[in-house]
Write a structure and sequence with these properties.
Elements (H helix, E strand, L loop, with lengths): L1 H43 L3 E2 L6 E2 L1 H4 L5 H33 L4 H11 L1 H4 L2 H16 L8 H24 L4 H9 L4 H12 L1 H16 L4 H5 L8 H8 L7 H41 L9 H20 L1
Antiparallel strand pairs: 1-2
Helix pairs in contact: 1-13, 3-7, 3-10, 7-10, 8-9
Protein name: ABC transmembrane type-1 domain-containing protein
Main location: membrane
InterPro entries: MetI-like, MetI-like_sf
């Protein structure tokens, strides 16, 4: 009895230690993600009243800014983010693949040092430096016009976030897989697509996510690098709309409504890309194996059946 109580106390103490380990992360997520999300949802889905101007708006009026103009901004932000992400993938993947086969550790460390250097400096300083470089090359200020400069800025800012997950996986790629593929008659190009890319699928998805989502909702890059009047993306539009949100409840409600719509668009895209295909694969597997209609025995049931079988065998041997 005492041993049982002692074991129970030890297990309880260990469980509490695990809770303390996850508590800081949970608190940060709660304060920096859950609470702001609730504030945005509440601000968008309730009537607003501006004390200074005396103006008010209903919930429907909060969403009046979600019009064709916002849809065009979302579409423009999306295709620019997709093009930028594709360029990052094309630049980072071959380079990481080459670096994975380099034997010199000094060379690898030096290259990683320079490849991740943009992460070390301030976002704003990098933008100012890139804009100044373009102006110096052109010989005059205000020389950057066009979405191409927005794409260059996104690639420059987020390329390290594509490089790091790919390199982390590729350095552990078993080289004998590639050699075996070549021994079986595949050339280097075929081995790359049949062996390397499937091996790095998770890293590719991570890199795409780390570049596509920040590029889609980026703020300040178009404002700095594209001097056209219609250069802003959806992130800049929401920022400008809610710039006065602390003083004006109307601005907070309108910017929150657009932010909520954008979040729903991203969630819908994620569902179409990840959740629905994954759910369909699970359902298809269960339908194929027949486990969808028949309950599978759990681990405890299997152990109980195994123990009963062994016990029956021992009793039979004794008899």
């Amino acid at each position: 009895m005492l041993m049982h109580l002692k074991s129970k106390l030890v297990n309880t103490f260990k469980a509490k230690k695990k809770i303390w380990l996850i508590l800081p992360f949970t608190a940060i997520i709660f304060m920096l993600f859950i609470v702001p999300s609730v504030i945005v949802i509440v601000a968008a889905l309730r009537p607003a009243f501006d004390v200074r101007s005396g103006l008010s708006s209903t919930v429907a009026e909060n969403f009046q800014n979600v019009d064709l103009f916002v849809a065009e901004k979302i579409w423009k932000s999306f295709w620019i983010a997709v093009v930028s992400t594709f360029i990052c993938l094309v630049l980072a993947f071959p380079f990481c693949y080459f670096l994975a086969f380099v034997k010199s550790k000094v060379f690898k460390s030096t290259v990683i040092l320079f490849a991740t250097a943009p992460i070390w400096s301030s976002f704003l300083i990098k933008l100012i430096g890139l804009k100044t470089l373009f102006d110096l090359l052109a010989g005059h200020t205000e020389s950057t016009y066009g979405d191409i400069f927005t794409i260059i800025g996104i690639v420059y800012m987020y390329l390290p976030f594509m490089f790091l997950p790919l390199y982390t996986v590729l350095i552990h790629l078993p080289k004998n897989f590639v050699l075996a593929s070549k021994d079986l008659g595949r050339n280097a190009f075929q081995s790359f697509f049949l062996i390397v890319i499937p091996y790095c699928k998770t890293a590719i998805i991570s890199g795409l996510t780390l570049v596509l989502l920040p590029g889609f909702t980026t703020v300040a890059i178009p404002e700095f690098l594209n001097n056209y009047n219609n250069a802003s993306l959806i992130g800049d539009y929401i920022f400008n709309l809610g710039n006065n949100a602390i003083e004006s409840e109307l601005s907070a409600a309108q910017s929150s409504a657009v932010s909520l719509v954008l979040a729903l668009v991203i969630l819908a895209a994620y569902s179409l890309w990840v959740l629905i295909p994954k759910g369909w694969r699970i359902v298809k597997h269960k339908l194929t194996t027949g486990s969808f209609f028949h309950q599978q025995p759990n681990k405890k049931s299997k152990l109980l059946v195994l123990g009963t079988t062994v016990l029956d065998q021992n009793i039979g041997d004794k008899q």
